[in-house]
Request: fold
Amino acid sequence: MTTNQPINDVMNARHSVRTFDGVTTIKHAEMQALLKTAFLAPSALNLQPIRALVIESPMIRQQLATATGNISQLTTASAVVLFVNDRENLAEKKPFLPSQQTGVKEHLDIAALDCGLVAMQFMLAAKDHGYDTNPMTGFDHAAFSQILNLDTARYEPLLLVAIGKAVTAGKMAKHKAIKTLIDFQ
Ligand SMILES: Cc1cc2nc3c(=O)[nH]c(=O)nc-3n(C[C@H](O)[C@H](O)[C@H](O)COP(=O)(O)O)c2cc1C
Reply:
């Protein structure tokens, strides 16, 4: 259930959490609602190449935990969501201007950007629903694909996001001074 906090409060309250309570389950309707919000994210040319695999099974997560250093997240979260690039989405690409045509490599780079936006929106929606999250690139893509029986020609794993109820509240990470990050011209 959404807390309806102002978006700025949600953004300030989101912190990576790596140990969850291990007991909370998220109903499919709620997970679907979170992902529906996540997939409102913009994508290049509105191609929407990202897909989400919601991994709930404790048995599968135990197996996946052998293919990542992020064991606590895998084993204690309510679910882990694997965001992948669907390469076959390329087939739907019908650029209307030559300047919008991109090669396959650019496509993967662009899909990674699209993925980041979907995942960020997912994490904020999750926070708004009272859950915490942790985005992770630290996992063995090939091993995950094998354990999850993914068609590797089609699906490119990009980002894993653990979601659940935190055991202890996440803390604000150290952030660089804003003046070292931005410039105006
Ligand atoms: C692309 C990406 C990959 C990450 N991979 C991992 C990871 O494999 N394991 C982990 O514990 N945290 C991972 N993180 C979380 C970062 O460590 C965390 O976002 C950063 O320290 C800032 O903390 P915050 O999320 O609490 O703001 C990742 C974050 C991003 C954006």
